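FORM 7B - TANDEM STRUCTURE REPORT

SECTION 1: FIRST PROTEIN
SEQUENCE AND TOKENS:
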Amino acid sequence: MGCDGGTIPKRHELVKGPKKVEKVDKDAELVAQWNYCTLSQEILRRPIVACELGRLYNKDAVIEFLLDKSSEKALGKATSHIKSIKNVTELRLSDNPAWEGDKGNTKGDKHDDLQRARFICPVVGLEMNGRHRFCFLRCCGCVFSERALKEIKAEVCHTCGAAFQEDDVIVLNGTKEDVETLKGRMEERRQKAKLGKNPQAHQKLRQGSPKKPASILERRKPAQLPKVQRQ
């Protein structure tokens, strides 16, 4: 079981590729999620919007998708929940002063630039590159890190001062569990909105049919026998 000369190969010599490939794939996935539009696959550029599931889009790509339903650019599950422009929120992002873009790239290799974040948390200064959890508020569109939300607990936005509730907090590019939670909240909001537009249907769901209980009660009444007069 040896090689020529009776040498036995070491384990690290036999298994070289998988870990490196896995790391490269993970880095590439982070770059794609935080730097490219989920819909058009083009580089993110302002105005940037996010959906209720925390995915990032170019606003013009969303508008084009909504206007052209036959567009082949649609990625099925990635956009099936976007029915109108109201289903996305325009983000208020804070630029990273340390990000130079193509200006600092002299070798033509953009890998390092993509690893740096274009935007940062305006509260604690963390870079929005996928290594830290970020979120935005549906009520105002401001974006900041989850750490800022936890460390500086408040009922108003850290950036603009707008009041918000827990339901307004949307995690950007979250885990599968995050997406499932956000999906449940989204469906609940839309169901409430439908019931709000049709108050009669909402009243019927709450009250039910008033005749059915009455008929049940009538069936349960004992039959009354006619009185017999004594002679």
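SECTION 2: SECOND PROTEIN
SEQUENCE AND TOKENS:
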Amino acid sequence: MGEDDEKQSEKRYISSEELRLHNTPSDLWISIQGKVYDATHWVKDHPGGELPLFNLAGQDVTDAFVAYHPGTAWSLLDRLPLVGYLSDYRVSDVSKDYRRLITDISKKGLFDKKGHITFIVLCHMCLMFAAVVYGVVCSPSVWVHLGCAVVLGFLWMQSGFLGHDSGHYRILSGPLVNRIMQVVTGNCLAGISIEWWKRNHNAHHIACNSLEFDPDVQHIPVLAVSSELFRGLTSYFYERKMSFDGVARLLVSYQHWTFYPVMCVARLNLFAQSVLLLLSNKRVQGRSMELVGLGVFWVWFPLLVSYLPSWGERVMFVVASFAVTGIQHVQFCLNHFSSSVYVGPPRGNDWFEKQTMGTLDITCEPWMDWFHGGLQFQVEHHLFPRLPRCQLRRIAPLVRELCKKHGLPYDNFSFWEANVRTIRTLRTAALQARDLANPVPKNLVWEAVNTHG
């Protein structure tokens, strides 16, 4: 027997069924391009946090791996214990084309061509912040103060877009300056923990529009994008049951009317979630820096507001700035609320399909890209999260053609149409909630038996 034959006979082959059995935090296997790795002890060191690995445990994760990692990451897999080889490893035609497209984009260097967006946005943010401080401190005019609140709202939007970019790829030269930029633009300037955002956003990307695993569609008791949420599903992100009780039923029944007002104050929820994470016992990278950053925000923002001459103007300033930033919260919702949702964990073998079915693009002219911050190309962003936003428009036709080839949806609508679709989705769920409320059910068992419409 030759040496190659001896090595072949020593290989351990594992079926997908056996792989699925190793899907717990204490026994976590994953498969990448046919090789099965034991990632149990790697979880605590994974730069993307533990949730992506937990959510995809016991599966082939090749498509997710190539989406999130540069070519240099392949050598790091050698650090993981190799368990064996997947005996029934197959690659679908969609995945083959998807991986081929990633390779083509990488060869063109598009992942590294970030343009000058970061510099331009930072310059505008500095000017906007200076204008807000000057207007509040030096002008007695209430109209100037109102204008400053509007400018501050747009400033927070731009800081959100920049934080979104820096969470997916390095917007600056090195990891340290990139990290400092994240904390400055997120924690210090906007009062939102960048670590909270990364934890939330990574879970969203991995489990796009899963009602049980994607936190971006888990807004009970205030909003519900599907009547499936009325069954009291479990949120594996928040680690609690999403109870559809009387309060939730009342709020959801009118959600198509309350959606925009809720978005105007949605920032309060982000403040609360940031603090809750940083004060929890969950693993948080740079917890002290994060807390200091939030402390900076809660010093400068109340101090700035205190310079306004009356409580009426102070309330006006806060409400107006939050309401303007609410546009960004609406943008987040437009990309997903009216798209397909599903119940259960994400699956690694239909990555391309789930990302395209759970997202939609917003059509706009290039001169409006500043307003959307890259979110208008949500389909492309979900498929290529490492791609700088200045390249998303360039690859959109390639993604459209790939979707057309495989009979997959490629949804794109105007900003107005996307709003209409979102409100229609919320209204449909609201009417279904009202059905359940007449007569008022005594418990969820009663609801399950009497659900209709």
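SECTION 3: OBSERVATIONS ON SECOND PROTEIN
The radius of gyration is 24 Å.
Residues 1-6, 439-453 have pLDDT under 50 and may be disordered.

SECTION 4: SIGNATURE
Preparer initials: ____
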